[in-house]
Amino acid sequence: MKRTVALAATTCALALLTTACGGSGSHSSAPSGATASDLHLPDLHGQHLEVAAVWTGPEQKNFMKVIQRFDQLTGAKTDFVPTGDNVSTFLGTKIQGGGAPDVAFLPQPGVLAQFAKSGWLKPADASVQKQLKSNYSTGWQNQGAYKGTQYGVYFKAANKSTVWYNTKAFSTAGVSSPPATWPEFLKVAQTLSDSGTPPVSVGGADGWTLTDWFENVYLSQAGPAKYDQLTKHQIKWTDPSVGKALTTLGQLFGKPALLAGGTRGAVATEFPASVDQTFADPAKAAMVYEGDFVATNITSDTKAKIGTDAKVFPFPTVDGGQAPMVVGGDVAVALKSSKGAQALLTYLASTDAARTEVKQGGFISPNKSLDLSAYPDATEQSLAKSLTAAGDNFRFDMSDQAPAAFGGTKGQGEWKDLQDFLANPSDVAGAQSKLETDAAAAFANAG
């Protein structure tokens, strides 16, 4: 969605959302919270900045409120540049062609490492690091660093160990409480199926959703140490632990009656549609697994109310393992050596920026200084609390840490291999072999 430009006649009326009228640089009408002085933001009147990210639709619209607030505080004029799904390819082309945006959001730490090795990133300055040290745990700071140099700000985080469910479908099926373990999850799924509602909606047309399914099962079942080894390709995808996790997933994926639309439907369903059909009226599915950001799709695309019609439970534990806490996030990095780029990173690391975004809904911030009351409802407050309360006790999305050719590119690598597995979940060994071949090639090419 393109950035909305206010008509001249209404600019002053929208002063709280846009650059102050008259171009005076005054911040007297700014909402309570940070000011340019508090954050040591420079005067950027007359400067045009570009910020690039993958976000579209409601996510992009909500983020524009943050950009408008930054422009109000500094006098800059910042434009949003959509990257499309292949973020690394888009940005690499822009950088090599001399047209890099000032700031870009990278959805994979693996891409941050690749860009840093290529010399494409500009280190965070003292103002950025001051905000990070005040507002972020060490674990989140480290996720934005490479070989001891701080480059990025994790503005957006995702608690990706959540399952959303339709309360009416559960009630109709006589399910009184959400499942806590994988066997309970499968039992509830069968109960829902028997009641006439397909139990699980899978957005298999978007391969990244399948990597998240695998990671939660693997982290709980194999444990953090194995998870870290597989993430770094220190063990192969042909390892028995991977086969065990795929076999566990096959207990769901291999039963078409448990999937909305059956196997073909799951393979063809895109992520937004997987949410929509779960909270349609009447429901076409009872549960959908994905992160806290599902709330955005529920709010914008359905009539369901979060906390009443739509509720959430933690991803079930597997084989007696710990409850998984898999997180994702988008890290903002500077691609230009400019005062404006560092100012934007500084603002993104602030509590004011986090507050501006989270109150829109469907967004979780890793900013530990943000009061939970900033979130619009009890469900999102709970999701945010579980994320920040974990401190450094989490694991970042495995596919996001891999080279983009394996873990972050549509139609290839892990995304494609797991889509093939969803279509044929009985071939565990074949899936492992393909995953290992693609992982080995990607890690070798990444050096």
TrEMBL record:
**Endpoints of the signal sequence:** 1-22
Matching entries from PROSITE patterns are given as:
PROKAR_LIPOPROTEIN (PS51257)
Q: Which Gene3D superfamilies match?
A: Periplasmic binding protein-like II
Q: Does the keyword Signal apply?
A: yes
UniProt KW Transport keyword? yes
Going by the UniProt record, its keywords in alphabetical order are:
Signal, Transport
Which family does the entry's similarity section mention? Belongs to the bacterial solute-binding protein 1 family.
Q: Which PANTHER family match?
A: ARABINOSE-BINDING PROTEIN-RELATED, OSMOPROTECTIVE COMPOUNDS-BINDING PROTEIN GGTB
Protein name, please?
A: Sugar ABC transporter substrate-binding protein
